[in-house]
Write a structure and sequence with these properties.
The protein is mainly β. It folds into two domains: 1-30; 36-352, YVTN repeat-like/Quinoprotein amine dehydrogenase (Methylamine Dehydrogenase, Chain H). The chain has one helix spanning 2-30, and strands spanning 39-43, 48-51, 59-60, 73-77, 83-88, 93-97, 104-105, 114-120, 131-136, 140-145, 152-153, 163-169, 172-177, 180-185, 190-193, 203-208, 215-219, 235-238, 246-247, 258-263, 271-275, 278-282, 290-291, 302-309, 315-321, 324-329, 337-338, 348-352. The strands form seven sheets. Strands 3-2-1-28 form a four-stranded antiparallel sheet, with no helix packed on it. It has a four-stranded antiparallel sheet with strand order 4-5-6-7, with no helix packed on it. Strand 20 and strand 21 form a beta hairpin.
């Protein structure tokens, strides 16, 4: 009897050891994932950082960045990958020529609150190369040929000029404003209001499936008067390029703010949200959402989400926010790893992973 118990105990110990070893291997296996990925991060009240190993470690992009320290920032890579543009909330628009140790200011936008940038190739083909569109607080959108210095107003049809963000999906440009979502009609160069059916029109985020038909839009704090029992969703979905919208908020907390929407380009049914209440994921095209917070700090505010694919077919998800940057593999119940080594202890307002 004693021998039998001893053997059983030994077998239990052996199984437990193998299980823990396998779990340890799985965890260590993920620690080096993405080590060939280049990333850029913007730190509030600090500068811009670069990682050439998928966020395992970071270093300042250029040595002198004091001109942009005081602001929240967003990052945009030019269409030829030669310039990194930096928008700020009150300091204007800056850029870094890749490979050079200097930040340059664009004088036309000095001390302005710049909200977003997109690069596009005009459908009419009149302009050689690409155009750059810049969205500003209160005064709308401006455009110039990429690399040129002559900026012009690009606001025809844009009823609300307080632009929160610009987004380009499947070749279509959208502008999220404090009171509506607008789509740019390439043929006429006119903005078209596509907000019909969206109750909360304080648009902060847009995401689109690769075919351009399915669009998601997320909102911030509701701006209008709200009835006592009114339900005002913060997330909406369209299946017809924005002609009609329906709420897509099952599983999301009431009053949540949606800062970022990341649709997996190769598995568009899988979507991640960066919100004021953390990170949420849907695996069924937005029909329902679940919070994913394994190893994420409490009350984590996720300001940006990015998805990138590895050569082995797995997808990595990066989240940037109030407690740094985290990375997870998009499978099962994601386990998040801190990828903030070398970053200043402040919230990360944006994360950029250039297309590879």
């Amino acid at each position: 009897m004693i021998r039998k118990i001893t053997i059983i105990n030994f077998m239990i110990l052996l199984v437990a050891t193998v299980f823990l070893s396998a779990a340890g291997c799985r965890k260590s296996d993920t620690s080096m994932l993405g080590n060939n990925i280049t990333c850029y991060a913007a730190a509030y009240n600090k500068g811009v950082y670069k990682s050439d190993n998928g966020g395992i470690s970071w270093y300042p992009l250029v040595s002198d960045q004091e001109d942009i320290y005081l602001y929240s920032k967003r990052l945009f890579m030019s269409s030829d990958s030669k310039r990194l543009f930096i928008t700020t909330t009150g300091g204007g628009l800056f850029y870094v020529d890749m490979g050079k140790d200097a930040i340059n200011s664009i004088s036309e936008f000095r001390d302005e609150d710049i909200r977003g940038i997109v690069f596009r190739r005009p459908a009419n083909g009149i302009t050689a190369g690409s155009e750059i569109l810049v969205g500003k607080k209160e005064t709308g959108v401006y455009k110039a040929a990429e690399g040129a210095a002559n900026w012009e107003d690009f606001n025809r049809g844009l009823a609300y000029r307080d632009v929160s963000m610009l987004y380009q999906g499947a070749g279509v440009v959208y502008a999220g404003t404090i009171n509506g979502l607008f789509r740019c009609d390439d043929g006429s160069g006119t903005w078209v209001d596509i907000s019909q059916g969206i109750k909360n029109r304080n648009i902060l985020a847009i995401g689109a499936a690769p075919d351009g038909k399915t669009i998601y839009t997320g909102a911030g704090v509701y701006q209008d008067e709200k009835g006592r029992f009114a339900s005002i969703p913060s997330l909406y979905k369209s299946l017809d390029r924005g002609s009609t919208w329906e709420k897509s908020d099952k599983g999301l907390p009431d009053g949540v703010l949606v800062f970022s929407i990341a649709v997996n380009p190769l598995r568009p049914e899988r979507i991640y949200l960066g919100t004021s209440e953390g990170i949420y994921r849907s695996t069924d095209g937005g029909a329902k959402w679940e919070k994913t917070d394994n190893d994420i700090p409490d009350k984590y505010k996720a300001l940006e989400i990015k998805i990138t694919r590895l050569s082995d077919g797995r997808d990595l998800v990066y989240a940037a926010g109030a407690n740094g940057i985290y990375m997870a593999v998009d499978e099962g119940n994601p386990e998040w790893e801190d990828r903030s080594y070398g970053l200043d202890d402040t919230y990360i307002s944006d994360l950029l992973i250039p297309t590879r």
